[in-house]
Amino acid sequence: MHRAFCWLLAAFLALAAPAYAAEMDARLEPLVRGLGAGSYADTEKALAKLAETGDPAAVPVIEALQAGDLHVRKPDGAVVVAKRSGNGYALTDPVTGAPIGEADRNAVEKIKVNNALRRSMSAALGALTLMSPNAGTRWQAAEAVFKSRDANALDALNAALAKETDEGVKRAMTQARASVLLGSSAPDDDKLAAIEVLKDRGDQDALALLNGAASGGSDAVKAAAEKAVAAVENRLALWGAAQNLWYGLSLGSVLLLAAIGLAVTFGVMGVINMAHGEMVMIGAYATFLVQEAFRAWAPGLFDLSILVALPVAFLVSGAVGVVIERSVIRWLYGRPLETLLATWGLSLALQQAVRSLFGPTNREVGAPSWMSGAFQVGGLTITYGRLWIVVFAFLVFAALLVALRKTWFGLSIRAVTQNRNMASAMGIRTARVDALTFGLGSGIAGLAGVALSQIDNVSPNLGQGYIIDSFMVVVFGGVGNLWGTLVGALALGSVNKFLEPYAGAVLGKILVLIFIILFIQRRPRGLFALKGRAVEA
Amino acid sequence: MAAAGLALGFAAGFAGPASAQDTIKVGILHSLSGTMAISETTLKDVMLMLIEEQNKKGGVLGKKLEPVVVDPASNWPLFAEKARELITKDKVAAVFGCWTSVSRKSVLPVFEELNGLLFYPVQYEGEESSRNVFYTGAAPNQQAIPAVDYLLEKESVKRWVLAGTDYVYPRTTNKILEAYLKSKGVKDEDIKINYTPFGHSDWQNIVADIKKFGSAGKKTAVVSTINGDANVPFYKELGNQGIKAQDIPVVAFSVGEEELAGIDTKPLVGHLAAWNYFQSVDTPENADFIKKWKAFTKNDKRVTNDPMEAHYIGFNMWVKAVEKAGTTDSNAVIDSLVGVAVPNLTGGYSAMLPNHHITKPVLIGEVQENGQFETVSKTPGLVVGDEWSDYLADSKDLISDWRAPMSCGNFNVKTGKCGGKGS
After folding, report:
1. Residues B97 and B183 in one domain
2. Domain check: are B200 and B166 in the same one?
3. How far, in Å, CA of A272 to CA of A270, rounded?
4. Which of the residues A250, A461, A466, A512 would you substitute to probe the B interface, choosing the one with the greatest number of B C-beta atoms within 10 Å?
5. Region of residue A524 (phi > 0: left; psi between -120 and 50: alpha; otherwise: beta)
6. Could you read off the pLDDT of B166-205 as tens digits, one per residue?
7. 20 to 30 Å CA-CA from A158: which of A46, A248, A446, B40?
8. Which residues in chain A land under pLDDT 50?
9. Would you say residue B30 lies in a domain?
10. Residue B197 and residue A505: Cβ atoms within 8 Å?
11. Does residue B55 sit in the same domain as residue B135?
12. What is the tally of structural domains in chain B?
């Protein structure tokens, strides 16, 4: 008897569960349909209702809307998830995820979203996914509620907080709760506690909320908020200085990359190479071509494309450099004015050649996944792209230093530049060394092009923006001295970044130029002047 | 029968060389090299396409059109030289050209001296009206003001960053916007103006600054008049520092489909642009235009943009005015151009106004993942181009009317005299 009852109960439950789910689906159905009603305002209303149900089944629907996959099927107005397949769309039910056939391209219409809707969607998803089994999702949900400050999410937040075991997520949820409470009509005690929590968070977002609180509410709350604002601002000011230092380092590393090739062609060889920027540009276009090849033949390995582009860019730019040296520059050694004019003409010719080949518009060079995004160190935001460029700049610098100091080729370069006749007498083929040295400088410029393609336009004008800066760095650091180039680049980068917040970008640049002019007046040979016979040669 | 055929052949044979000599020349004055080539080359191509189309329809006044392309190489004084060459040496009937305001200012005296015709297709800062120039791009009230209105109303923005490149268009536009925002009750401390040099590429601390400015507890937006090449690194930095459109939207006046073609737009979805035309506009005229453009350039990936539509409108207006006047004589065409209305690509008609500006709809679009814009707001009717801003003290009393009795570009309604600012 007892056992029979158990069986019955189990059978009943087994039957009832899908029935219950179906009933929930049926409840969501008209709300989902409402998403496709037409105007943004209608979609927003339907979304609000959908979020109000608190039903986790609504999550995939909102996610589909967020991803732009939600469409309206034209004949019957049903809202479906449509994904590209071949020439048409494969349709699935937004709630159950069951496939419901295919549709022609013109038979479905995408449900458009705007910024207001995007905000509502993150808020709704935040409130709905607070109980997700995945800690990462819960953390994101808490952050979404922190931003949306949705008072309706408070109950869900309290329930989630009570169950939360992960420390990090718990902190995020407490902060989200504080954010909601501060914006609501909660009693003062709650608000004061919330202010403390936000003060501990201490970032820009917290500051925004505290500033809001400091401008309204009761006197006690106002006073506490003002105090918290002052504390957070102090903390941020400290981090701000550190951030400027990082920006300076990052700009300095870009300048270093752009200038280091010039440190070889101009610094070591003494060729005033106005086409240096175009070598950088060629390196960037080589990156573009390598990426195109990856897109066409190995899209799965796209993340490696930049690494493959490095040797390609080095060889292409280097080869162009060797050709330029053999065909133009070698006839002009010892005639700086003619070299300047000839290389300037070359730079224009190269620009126009690239413009004719690739068109005048920018080319898209994608960032591999390991170079996109940012991370936080305390109050510092460091973007991965910039971090890798800094690392790369120093690696290139170190490699060049080793190549010049420790290899036979480096020895030949130094020998030829210091005393051409003597080197020739010792059996060094000076003409070949000249060509290879110029190729080396150009190749390094090509490497810089790979890095710059990540932060700047890949257009025929890319190089022009860096040529002045490069010369500035090399001259400031001391012609012919690699360490000078390093110090010069970092110094100019940091000075620029520390001036910018106070003087603005335009005036900042002017001040740096004036500083360099004055500096060169005092020390014509730059920071680290070469001494001895090499100078007279 | 055979004789008739022969006669026809002869006639055709005669007509050939005769019409080759007797063409109407149209000047195209866009930079094909130098920094501005990135934007202007496209406009040269679109003009060649429009002329080819018109010739297929039989030309104008029974004559074929002949394009004369010159390259002012992004060099402002060279613009004036080339303009002079087009008018005096090539004897072109009209010139379509210029992009930057400084290039337009450079050619302006040449066109006025030689009584030429210039169609200028780019959105600009206003504060100008010349008898010889037809402004088919947007005046500030056809782009900047509606964009700010959208942010005020739909996004309830309270705090504003006006970021621009340091030259005449951003400076004048920002001056107008600042005055406009203050008239709407925005306080001084809620407006931040920032200028950067041309081609600025390191945006790290400016973007961080914007983030900081946005954390004062009030909804913040950025109005960007950043020009040309500087936009790509700017948007890349925005994406890297995680500034999302839903938190701090950026509305740009110089970023179109062409500029977005060089960027990965995924992190930028939702940022805004205000134009009078988007490639995504769903009208039969536009679909036709895009199809022809892709066929003409033999490239399925080429995009269309707002200044291209301006040339489309301007060219059709010129054709219509020439046919109305029955001659290509400058004075006759200038007079007959006012009042001419032609279809634009967004499903309406644009008309040439007495102040030599045109009527256009204003569209606000959000950037999509595919690099296109999705229209989120469109003015209900057409907006009349206003050359002298109502929000600047020294130009609010000025109007321009180039029709016969008044014929003045800067008539002061207070003093009742012609000749105010800019004369």
Report:
1. no
2. yes
3. 6
4. A461
5. alpha
6. 888 899 999 999 999 999 999 999 999 999 988 888 898 8
7. A46
8. 1, 533, 535-537
9. yes
10. yes
11. yes
12. 2
